[in-house]
Amino acid sequence: MKQILLGNEAVARGAYEAGVKVVSSYPGTPSTEITEAVAQYDRIYCEWATNEKVGAEVAIGASIRGARAMTCMKHVGANVAADPLFTASYTGVNGGLVFVVADDPGMHSSQNEQDSRNYARAAKVPMFEPSDSSECKDYLLRAFDLSEKYDTPVMLRLHTRVSHSRSVVELGEPREMQVRPYTKDVDKYVMMPGMAIKRHVVVEERIRKLSADASSDPEAVGAHQVIRRSGSSLGVITSGASFQYVSEALPEANILKLGLIWPLPVDLIRSFASEVDRLVIVEELDPFLETEIRALGIPCEGKELFTLQGEYSIRMIAHALTSNTDPARGIDSKDLPVPPGRPPVMCAGCPHKGLFLALSRMKVQVTGDIGCYTLGALPPTSAMDACVCMGASIGMAHGFDKATDGEDSKKTVSVIGDSTFLHSGITNVINAVYNQSNITVIILDNSITGMTGHQQNPSTGMNIRLNPAPAISLEDLCRALGVESIRVVDPVDTALCQKVLREELDKPGVSVVITRRPCALIPTGKGKKEDRTTVNYDSCTACGACIRMMCPALTEGSDKKPVIDWDTCNSCGLCRNLCRFGALTKGGRES
Ligand SMILES: Cc1ncc(C[n+]2csc(CCOP(=O)(O)OP(=O)(O)O)c2C)c(N)n1
Where are the alpha helices (DSSP H) in 252-339? Predict the structure, then answer.
């Protein structure tokens, strides 16, 4: 049977067909839907882990115990999971073990554009890169077989275009995989120097053998494909989504399409290069293949023709390598007739907005974190000074405090979401308490992992399959970490937020303020229809305070007075709290 699947859904299908037993992941665009789709297969145990390192360690444990296991993450998640990954390369596996990492060229939803292929090389683990949904499934099956055959974790590299595109996939039957017997093997699984020194030799030998096998049996081992076209002296080496662009942009070119992009099939590359007069490497982001191929002494072109940044397109490749500058050739998404861009804003009823209005009025310094609330850095609130990576907000506030001998602590707060706090904020609070910091930490608890599309987390009371699960109390947790002052406020009450924050900023030590209100897009956060806001135009002075809040439910009418879109209004009441003239009221119809 055939189905049209997202690349991410095809990876999940591959896990099902490969007989995977355990999947533990942390969400992150563009990888999130893989684990959500895995949750549809009852026979796979799957979970949201607290972070990527935890997810990787769960998968490593399941693999050593004999089950096929997988962990999925976005590219920056690989930074968090890098510690276990690098040493899992040394221990090898028992049941097959796959790390799925989804890159985001063009940064559709990320804070940087790092290239995960560098991790495969640095950790000395093989990596496959599919170019469509069918290959997502096929390469994942290959990755599990290769993992067990070569006793190594394997990485599967996706990127946004492949994760989030749909194409046809031929479905297969799931394999019946038994959990393999487990035998205690200290030399293999306990990585102390004495054992690790010996395992490093194994790792280097493994990668050499894989490279040789991928050259001598390119299709079977590496899923490599050589597409020869008579009459052309141009050869292109490529992989992933770039292969799709090259195929359409250069229908006459010879192509070496790599499936296993680490380690490289050196002999195959040499022989392909010898067949063409001009060799061009087409790859998004880093000159990864190009650097390796140049190091082999093979002349080629790459980044002198193409950019290191963002996504490629059919047209870009055609323009660089052919005389065909026909604008109709290939379509760039930026040429499509879509409505003009608009600045990203928080949703109607977003609980984070009230807090950020309070922060902008207080004119405090805000060390930020990653989540929906990062939008607080933009107008209308513009209330964020720095944002680096998940969990960094609290450490940065502590840094501000120590850098100024405590002077900045009265005017600096850190903001962090519930999921992000549990991901990597906890250890920062411990550090701040231990090192006698004077910081105020705001945990924005909207009862969900909002930014990545509403995944459960350990404080929400539900697991990935929406079954009841123990809910961690953020207050109890912070108390256990040594925080003495913990306050809970409703962020829609901006005046109260300001008052509480001012009091906490004035206190010595580490304070935590939890702003609690569910995300407006989850069932518990949906406001009542009868509580939606109405405008009393007789009282309205057209001062613009509510319009400046940039709520998507509220637009400016021709008389500069607000017009409420009742389909979008989520009844949060923030605009009512802001109106000094009593012109915005609850319920009723617009007068
Ligand atoms: C290391 C890492 N993993 C995953 C992500 C993707 N990501 C961005 S924000 C976020 C969590 C947001 O949830 P929360 O902190 O609860 O804030 P909310 O969006 O709900 O306001 C995730 C998982 C990331 N940016 N970095």
Answer: 266-275, 288-295, 314-321
Tell me which residue range forms the domain holding 106: 2-220
Which of 160, 390, 457, when mutated, tests ligand 1's pocket best, judged by the most ligand atoms within 8 Å of its CB?
390
Ligand 1 closest atom vs CA 29: 6
Minimal-distance CA residue to ligand 1 atom 2: 77
Same domain, 103 and 197: yes
Radius of gyration in angstroms for the set of CA atoms belonging to the chain, rounded to a whole number = 27
Spatial separation of the C-alpha atoms in residues 319 and 492, rounded to whole Å: 52
> CA-to-CA distance for 211 and 42, rounded, in angstroms?
37
Evaluate whether residue 41 is within a structural domain. Answer: yes
pLDDT of residue 474: 98
From the CA of 453, how far away is ligand 1's center (Å)?
Answer: 10
Query: If you measure from the C-alpha of residue 500 to the centroid of ligand 1, how many angstroms do you get, rounded to a whole number?
Result: 26
Q: Lowest-pLDDT range, 265-274, 564-573, 580-589? A: 580-589
pLDDT tens, residue by residue, 369-383 = 999 999 999 999 999
Residues 197 and 289 in one domain: no
pLDDT band at 325 (very low <50, low <70, confident <90, very high): low
> Among 220, 252, 284, where does a domain finish?
220
What the block records as the tokens of 89 is: 């390369």
